[in-house]
């Protein structure tokens, strides 16, 4: 199994801060309780604005390097309503195209992923190469006079960075990942996500607004209550929080296991397998949660469903080894199955009930505690993203 040789310094920093918080019996907090109007989860107009501003105009993680290893590898990303073909071309670059034939709009493929040299339309066999260029147009002489050079696939801004492939689902839009990810790039680079190996994927749909489901990933206040059977090895109400990005829109958290205490009296120079004593959760705005463990990465991406009251969670889980054995893959699969059941039967069950209560109109608002900083950060960033109201202030950690 992989040891925590990646991001050693950052991991030690997290361990040191967690040990300090544990000794003080506290957690990172923000300055005040945050109130969220129920309408943020119910309002149709806001929902449509989110679909545009957050899911069409913001860089999204549309794939991971590990999902597109070889030239010709592709993945379909359709969760936003735009059918996007993410492809690795012959030169090894990641590209994103609208999965729509330039003849009469048919989808070039409906396979969720695969590998091929060209995309040939099932309707009249126009075919496109891995750079999106129209490579062949059958019966060209009969079709009429068109300039093939102008009939390539509609391309979307796309860039691969730190093992993730980002795209903005608006043709011609600017994408500035330097500022988007500022302050977090060293850490993200250090995880070497590009070395990971995909083990499996699964979806989880629930009747609830997508943000309510996303909220359930942002705090550990609920661990010893909702997940009392599974998380008793975790330290209660203790978490390390750091935000990054040009707008403070992303963050990472570290949640300690009780076993971290074992390191308290060991000199740092002798610390081993430090990451095995806590989980690290990254949030990449607006919808990607990555839980990093020494051997595994599990990704949850939450999308608005067909209505304001529906969401779709796409999950993928990876080995952090480049070439894991079948035994390791099975172990990861088993671990993920347990985790999936917990999410489905506990987190998403609560979420579905809470959403019904919000829909009943009986609750004016819900609350995020000072001890749930990532929720406040998330909703400040989402509010700013949709321009509903300016974030009142940047809320940094002020107490511990
Ligand atoms: S719609 Fe694709 S070839 Fe006609
Ligand atoms: Fe949970």
Any overview of this molecule?
By secondary structure, the chain is of the alpha+beta class. The chain is built from 10 helices and 20 strands. The strands form 5 sheets. A 7-stranded antiparallel sheet has the order 13-19-18-17-16-15-14, with helices on both faces. A 5-stranded antiparallel sheet has the order 6-3-4-5-10, with no helix packed on it. The two termini are 34 Å apart. The mean pLDDT is 95. It binds FE2/S2 (inorganic) cluster and fe (ii) ion. The site of FE2/S2 (inorganic) cluster (FES) has 9 residues, from loops. The site of fe (ii) ion has 5 residues, from loops.
Reconstruct the topology from this structure:
Blueprint: H1 8-24, E1 34-37, H2 39-42, H3 44-53, E2 60-64, E3 73-77, E4 84-88, E5 94-98, E6 113-115, E7 119-120, E8 127-128, E9 134-136, H4 140-143, E10 155-156, E11 158-161, E12 164-167, H5 177-180, H6 185-190, E13 197-206, H7 210-215, H8 223-226, E14 240-244, E15 250-256, E16 278-284, E17 288-292, E18 296-304, E19 311-319, H9 326-359, E20 365-368, H10 373-386
Antiparallel strand pairs: 1-20, 2-12, 3-4, 3-6, 4-5, 5-10, 7-8, 8-9, 11-12, 13-19, 14-15, 15-16, 16-17, 17-18, 18-19
Bound molecules: FE2/S2 (inorganic) cluster and fe (ii) ion (FE2).
FE2/S2 (inorganic) cluster (FES) binds at residues 101, 103-104, 106, 121, 123-126.
Cofactor: Fe cation
Domain Rieske: 61-167
Protein name: Phenylpropionate dioxygenase-like ring-hydroxylating dioxygenase large terminal subunit
């Amino acid at each position: 199994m992989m040891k925590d040789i990646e991001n050693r310094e950052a991991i030690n920093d997290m361990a040191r801060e967690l040990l300090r918080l544990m000794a003080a019996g506290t957690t990172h907090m923000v300055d005040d309780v945050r109130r969220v109007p129920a309408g943020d989860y119910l309002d149709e107009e806001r929902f449509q604005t989110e679909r545009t501003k957050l899911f069409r105009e913001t860089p999204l993680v549309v794939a991971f390097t590990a999902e597109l290893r070889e030239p010709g590898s592709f993945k379909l990303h359709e969760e936003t309503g735009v059918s996007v073909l993410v492809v690795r071309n012959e030169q090894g670059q990641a590209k994103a195209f609208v999965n729509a034939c330039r003849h009469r709009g048919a989808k070039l493929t409906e396979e969720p992923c695969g590998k091929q040299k060209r995309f040939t339309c099932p309707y009249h066999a126009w075919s496109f190469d891995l750079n999106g260029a129209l490579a062949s147009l059958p019966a060209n002489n009969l079709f009429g006079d068109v300039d093939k050079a102008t009939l390539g696939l509609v391309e979307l801004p796309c860039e691969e960075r730190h093992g993730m492939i980002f795209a903005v689902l608006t043709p011609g839009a600017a994408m500035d990942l330097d500022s988007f990810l500022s302050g977090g790039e060293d850490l993200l680079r250090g995880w070497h996500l590009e070395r990971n190996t995909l083990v499996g994927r699964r979806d989880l749909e629930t009747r609830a607004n997508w943000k309510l489901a996303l909220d359930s990933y942002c705090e550990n206040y609920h661990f010893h209550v909702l997940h009392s059977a599974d998380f008793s090895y975790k330290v209660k109400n203790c978490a390390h929080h750091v935000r990054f990005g040009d707008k403070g829109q992303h963050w990472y958290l570290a949640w300690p296991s009780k076993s971290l205490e074992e390191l308290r009296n060991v000199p740092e120079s002798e610390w081993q397998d430090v990451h095995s004593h806590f989980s690290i959760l990254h949030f990449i705005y607006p919808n990607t949660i990555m839980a990093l463990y020494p051997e595994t990465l599990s990704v949850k991406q939450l999308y608005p469903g067909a209505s304001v009251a529906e969401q779709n969670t796409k999950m993928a889980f990876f080995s952090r080894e480049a070439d894991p054995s079948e035994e390791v893959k099975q172990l990861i699969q088993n671990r993920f199955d347990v985790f999936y059941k917990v999410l489905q039967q506990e987190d998403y069950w609560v979420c579905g009930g809470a959403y019904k209560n919000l829909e009943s109109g009986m609750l004016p608002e819900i609350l995020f505690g000072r001890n749930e900083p990532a929720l406040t950060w998330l909703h400040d960033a989402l509010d700013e993203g949709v321009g509903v109201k300016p974030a009142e202030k940047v809320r940094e950690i002020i107490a511990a």
